[in-house]
Structure formats: C-alpha cells, structure tokens
C-alpha cells in the first residue's frame, strides 16, 4: 500500500517543458495510481529574455535557478529539467533523483534544401547560438557562416525560412519530444558534433528529504542513463564550464563498461581538444576524461574564452 499524495509539479511554460512534464507525470502516475498530479507553471527570467544569445546573457542555469528556488520554497514537489540546462551543482537541499531512459543524444541538422552537412554550399549560413555547435561545425567546415538564433524550437524552425538560413542545428531529442522528428535532415555523427553534457536526458529534481517521491523516481530511472548522466556531469564539473565555453561530453555503455568522450574547443573551431576514458565507476570515468582534456591544455582554452566573455550580471 503506497501513501496517497497530491503532487505539484513545477514547470516552465514552454511547449517543450510542458510536454516533458506531462510525459513524466504519466510515467509516475503509472507507477503510483493513487497519486494525483497538478502542474504549477512558472515564468523564469530566462524565458523573458528572448533576443539575446544565451552565451551573452550569462549566468549558469538561467532557467534552472528560479525553478530550484520554487522547489525549495515548497511551491511544488518536483520539476523536470532538460539535464543539459542544469549546472554541474544543483542547489543544496535538492537532488536529481529521476533519470528516465535517454532520448536521442545527437544534434540534428535541418536544412532548407534537404542537403546534409557535407553537401551544403561553400559559405552556407547555419543558424545556432550554441558555441559548442558553432565550434564543431567550423572545425568540420571552416567556410560556414554561423548565424546566432534564439527562441523556442518552433521559433528557430521558422527562422530557417525568415532569416535566410541554409540550415539550423537543434537537439534531436527536443524535436522528437515535440513530435517534429520528421523535420530532421541528418543526425550529426558523434565524431562530427559531440553533444552537450546531458543532451537528451531528463533529470527530475525534488527535495532531498521527500522519501516517497524519491522511491517513485528511483523506480522510473534507467540505470544506463543515470550512469551516463553521472559520468558526463563529473566531466563538466571538473572542467567548470558554463555555457560560455564550447564543452561537449557523451557517455554510453559498451560491453558492460562506461565509455566517455569529452571535447573542449575554441569558439572558432581552430582548436579542438578531444579525450576519452573507459571504466566501471561513472564519476571516476568522467573525471578521467576531464583530466585527459586538461592534460592537453583544456584549461588554457577555457581560460581564453572566459576572459573574453562579458561579465555576468
Ligand atoms: N538549450 C535549450 C534546450 N534544452 C534542451 C533542449 C532539447 C532537449 C534535450 O537536449 O534534452 C534544448 C533545445 C536544443 O538545444 O535544441
């Protein structure tokens, strides 16, 4: 017999956030038929600032901090984060307790004329505000013109036409969760565009002392996804990267062991440092991959980028 609870779920109002929230509620409901759920919508500062590239507004976890404060105040019981938007450290008193099976981790190219990356014309205009994507695209194709675009997924898809772009790059996971996977021209190979740490993973956060909720979230957790999340976030934490630095990391299970790949690049793609590590313990493997990046000078690349970034305000 489980306890009967009325669970309040804090969610940003974006279509993607609401979609992900409803999906997780359905999954928890299936495990706890007696529980009742209610969505508490929240508008964050990050949702209000729409026209400035995220890399310029600064502040780690722009969308996440206010949601964490709301959870700590007790405005709601859990929230569903896109893990890649969650800074390396979560707020004291909260835990990331639920990791449903990962959606597609790769970045997707959506091109106007259906051409894959390798066939785009010289000087093609590619829309992305992600320094990580820009750096890797330029490393593969230095001729490309990177055009900053921001906004929700549907806004960015529209800008493909209105901003006269040849292609845009988005996380395949977000597109698929919205039911728009059919728009994808090409999934970019992991060795062409290594994803952001946590891309495609949902991380469900709740208060660290909420025992019955912790139990339910543990039941919907996929062990391989959780291990990948831990390894990738250990790598990120050791590199101390904010969204101002092109950092990528991806972990997957191979033959029972965890394989982590990491990348640090200069924004122009001229310098790209790669490293990998294999092992059993998720955090240890992530740390080892980070150390191998640092041994190749990643700190200098990160330091150079951070020095050029505008001050956080
Ligand atoms: N930075 C915004 C963001 N946060 C999570 C996703 C997509 C879903 C995911 O990666 O889990 C996106 C959109 C994108 O990067 O294209």
TrEMBL record:
EC number, UniProt record: 2.5.1.61
Cofactor(s), by name: dipyrromethane
Reactions accelerated catalytically: 4 porphobilinogen + H2O = hydroxymethylbilane + 4 NH4(+)
Annotated ranges, domain Porphobilinogen deaminase N-terminal: 7-213
Keywords, sorted A to Z: Porphyrin biosynthesis, Transferase
Post-translational modification S-(dipyrrolylmethanemethyl)cysteine, affected residues: 243
Biological role: Tetrapolymerization of the monopyrrole PBG into the hydroxymethylbilane pre-uroporphyrinogen in several discrete steps.
Additional comment: The porphobilinogen subunits are added to the dipyrromethane group.
Subunit composition and interactions: Monomer.
Protein name, as recorded: Porphobilinogen deaminase
Organism expressing this protein natively: Alicyclobacillus cycloheptanicus
């Amino acid at each position: 017999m489980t306890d009967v609870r009325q669970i309040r779920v804090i969610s940003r109002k974006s279509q993607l956030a609401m979609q992900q929230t409803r999906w997780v509620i359905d999954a928890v409901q299936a495990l706890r038929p007696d529980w009742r759920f209610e969505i508490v919508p929240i508008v964050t500062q990050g949702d209000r600032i729409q026209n400035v590239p995220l890399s310029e507004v600064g502040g780690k976890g722009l969308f996440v901090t206010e949601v964490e404060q709301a959870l700590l105040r007790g405005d709601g019981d859990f929230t569903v984060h896109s893990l890649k938007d969650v800074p390396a450290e979560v707020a004291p008193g909260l835990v990331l307790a639920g990791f449903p099976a990962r959606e597609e981790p790769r970045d997707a190219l959506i091109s106007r004329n259906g051409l894959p990356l390798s066939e785009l014309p010289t000087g093609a205009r590619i829309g992305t505000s992600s320094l990580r994507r820009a750096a890797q695209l330029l490393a593969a194709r230095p001729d490309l013109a990177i055009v900053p675009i921001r906004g929700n997924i549907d806004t960015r898809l529209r800008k493909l036409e209105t901003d006269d772009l040849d292609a845009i790059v988005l996380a395949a996971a977000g597109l698929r969760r919205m039911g728009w996977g059919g728009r994808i021209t090409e999934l970019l190979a992991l060795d062409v565009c290594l994803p952001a740490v946590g891309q495609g993973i949902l991380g469900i956060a709740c208060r660290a002392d909420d025992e019955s909720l912790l139990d339910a979230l543990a039941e919907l957790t996929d062990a391989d996804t959780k291990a990948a999340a831990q390894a990738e976030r250990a790598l990120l934490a050791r590199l101390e990267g904010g969204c101002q630095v092109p950092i990528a990391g991806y972990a997957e299970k191979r033959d029972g062991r965890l394989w982590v790949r990491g990348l640090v690049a200069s924004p122009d793609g001229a310098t790209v440092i790669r490293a990998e590590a294999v092992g059993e313990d998720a955090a240890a493997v992530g740390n080892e991959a980070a150390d191998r990046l640092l041994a190749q000078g990643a700190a200098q690349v990160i330091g150079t980028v951070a020095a050029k970034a505008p001050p956080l305000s």
